[in-house]
Amino acid sequence: MIAWDDFTPLASLAGGLLIGLAAAWLALANGRIAGISGLLGGLVDRAADWPLRAAFVAGVVLAPLVYRLLVGDLPAVHVAASWPQLALAGLLVGVGTRYASGCTSGHGVCGLARLSPRSLVATLSFMAAGFVTVYVLRHALA
Amino acid sequence: MKTLSALLAGLIFGLGLIVSGMANPAKVQGFLDLAGAWDPSLALVMVGAIGVALLPFRLAQRLKTSWLGEPLQLPGMREITPRLVAGSVLFGIGWGLAGLCPGPALVLLGTLSAPALLFVLAMLAGMALFRLLERQRA
Fold this sequence. Notes:
With 142 residues, chain A is mainly α.
């Protein structure tokens, strides 16, 4: 069953275009992959190229402020997870993305745009795990 | 200049996450909820992002140096390894559990959201744990 009331095809497509353009720009101008977990992981590892990593991360963090200045009120956001769930989820995302060398941005966007078989396997794996997790959370346990 | 370019790229990336709905965990979980009221929006985020990046990445792979004169650091690994799959599965479980992946978590951090702060701190701890485990292996 499709939730037509929640479906936002145009906004999601437009947002996707912005994400793709930003990733393309970082690759062409800076020669780098716009992978958030990799860029963050390098900061944790104190990599020598930290200024570039910190600048990209700062840009993402500042985006809501700039959105508010340019567009207006931010779209509504709802976090359903409890505090223990958030802590466990964060830990899993941190460890998992580092072992996988990428997340939704590095594998799901940049890797698939580079037609990388590795990124296809990674994307199918985290999507499948995400589907199963939400199924267990909302239907099996509920 | 290089740093400014990265800042701008990050900003546009973050704006894209907000506009697309990826920064809303409820929407992400709605996409992952195949058996419930499924919201297919996020598939279109991927279509838009990958579609517009296909040609530029093809071009980037042919560059000798980047437009700002930096060496190209595009991944060269081709091997499908157990750690790639296991890591992705762990990531996917966390993604489903909270409806957050690293980019949207940073965006929400910028709205001074307490849940996002907790998630990001736990994520950084997870990355530090990975570093520790890798060092012991070496």
